[in-house]
Amino acid sequence: MAISNQRIKKLTLLCAGALAGGVFTLSLQALADKDVTGPLPLNELRTFAEVFGRIKQDYVEPVEDKKLINDAIKGMLSGLDPHSDYLDPEAFKELKEGTQGEFGGLGLEIGAEDGLVKVIAPIEDTPAQRAGVKSGDLIVKIDDTPVRGLSLTDAVKKMRGKPGSKVTLTIARKTETKPLVLTLTRAIIKTKSVRFKLLEPNYGYLRIAQFQEHTVENLIQGIQTLLKQNKAPLKGIILDLRDDPGGLLNGAVGVSSVFLPKDQLVVYTEGRAPDAKMHLTADTQNYLRPGESDPNKVLPADIKSVPLVILVNGGTASASEIVSGALQDHKRALIVGTQTFGKGSVQSILPLANNGGIKLTTARYFTPSGRSIQAKGITPDVQIEDAKLTSAQQGLRIREADLENHLSNPNGNDKPDSKPSKVIEPPVQKAVPDGSDKGNDKDQANPLGPREPNPATDYQLGQALNILKVQQILLKKG
Q1: Calpha distance 405→428 (Å, rounded)
Q2: Is the pTM of this model over 0.70?
Q3: CA 168 to the chain's CA centroid
Q4: What value, to the nearest 5°, has the Cα angle with vertex 209 and ends 463 and 331?
Q5: Least buried of 34, 36, 158, 166, by fewest C-beta within 10 Å?
Q6: Basic and acidic residues bias located where (predicted)?
Q7: Residues classed as catalytic
């Protein structure tokens, strides 16, 4: 974008992938426009012009110049990594609208693989999740349009639409011999960011489904409610970040600040440009919007020392990995579950002169101790598999390292940094007839949506609660 001597707005996006009917969450930063340095690659540009001319002259049908140029830009960006993309004016407008409110969609986190659209995770309590779309599914057709060759932006546009309208997805799943054809009804996608429950006296449960604009204040309101319900200080808190695809960077910093002392380092970023380098601490200037008062002031001081367990899995990505990594590095929380997604890069939405924009990977982020999450993820302190998943299903989990053209980890290979300090094997599940395990469902209220926090039926949650109780015993002995 050729605008000299001006300040531009750059939208910094942290998420696991493109959102097909999810909520784009962005933080705004003012950064200076940068001049392009170095000579232009004239030989390569001549080749480009030659190919352009051949297509215009010899292709079987006439092609508009605009289409050729736009497709060339899309190819240039999509070839970099799974998260960089070109946004034409319409797509750029839709993205901005998606950050501001409601729109019709399906509720999918998606990435690119081998020219197809791969599901990273369905967002909970959305049409996609209710229809049975699963992590690792490959979307091969949207209505009658084959997906191969479509950019992620184009695929998202086809899946979004007027609430109440229908869209048919043809899905390839490794465990199925034939493609699955699912017809979904688009709905208003407005996920609840924070849910909470008192699991039993003295032990609270907090779930963050996605890091949104009001996540920090909603989290604090949830803690206040739990304290009132308990009528006493809590002895332990479980923070559930399973299948949380990420969201706002300042939301991650704000959530970390709830449990960390002021000015502790939460995350830092490294990129080629000076303005891609940030050190973000648990300080109000790094997570509050202008004019807001600090919501942390209403919480008792002991919240920063109450025993804390964070639940994670392969769907824990980006902003939720920042929180997990920061609290793990500062020895503030015990991380329990399975290896996280490994989304350790920052995408910036840069506006263009044509009212469009580009989504460009501009930096990697690092935990306070200097660990890069990229393509590795966070290794839990205590590894506990989901007892409801078979080993084959667990192996189908998609992670950043599985995405085509993913960025490498600057600290070395893409293997987990270390082994969990402890591994708890789930019990062997007995086969039961279909429907025989659903007898009590009708008797249970479900105020928290599809992930009802029940330690009796959720093995990972039950073990997390046991860990908190053991910590209490050790504290008393100490």
Answers
A1: 37
A2: yes
A3: 25
A4: 50
A5: 36
A6: 435-444
A7: 318, 329, 343
